[in-house]
Design goal:
alpha+beta, Beta-lactamase Inhibitory Protein, Chain:B, domain 1, four-stranded antiparallel β-sheet, about 30% strand
Length: about 180
């Protein structure tokens, strides 16, 4: 019975979080409206033709990275959680460090493993379940991706008592 109540509370909390955020409408929502809702971005990445991407990074402790693409006039083109499963699936063997940084946003840590000759970057990513923190790892050799993996940390960064849902980006017409 306790698990059912916990599941219902989680579902209400997740749907409640999404309901107070204004819907992002590509072509109509402005950069000013995004900043009114989410605050000042961690940084702005310039894009071709005067466009830019507003990056809301939460590493090393968070589990999301909101990226909002805006055109030169400040209109939203797209919004996505860079650490959502659909975006993580875009990581491919052969991608460069710069491509991964651009795709996933700032990483949590990087570690060199001398026996394998790999650098590994990792990100905290969403997980469901008490006591398990999940990390998405990208393995590089000579500056290119050789594989990706996930690792699980019992206890998690907050002692293992939390359930952290993925970020809800209120943009039904966006490409996640």
């Amino acid at each position: 019975m306790g698990r059912i109540i916990g599941s219902v509370v989680l579902a209400v909390a997740v749907s409640g979080c999404a309901s107070w955020l204004p819907v992002i409408e590509p072509g109509a929502t402005t950069e000013a409206e995004i900043q009114d809702t989410y605050g000042r971005p961690s940084f702005r990445r310039p894009e071709p033709e005067g466009a830019s991407t507003l990056v809301y990074a939460t590493q090393p402790m968070g589990i999301s990275c909101l990226m909002v693409e805006v055109d030169a006039s400040g209109r939203v083109l797209n919004a996505r959680d860079a650490l959502g499963d659909r975006n993580l699936a875009r990581v491919e063997v052969g991608m460069t460090l710069a491509q991964i940084d651009r795709l996933l946003g700032p990483h949590r840590t990087e570690v060199f493993f001398p026996l394998s000759g790999e650098w590994v970057w990792d990100w905290n990513v969403p997980h469901f379940g008490p006591g398990i923190a999940t990390r998405f790892n990208v393995h590089f050799k000579e500056g290119v991706v050789v594989r990706a993996s996930r690792s699980f940390v019992p206890g998690g960064p907050t002692g293992g008592s939390d359930i952290r849902p993925p970020m809800v980006v209120p943009c039904p017409r966006c490409d996640p």
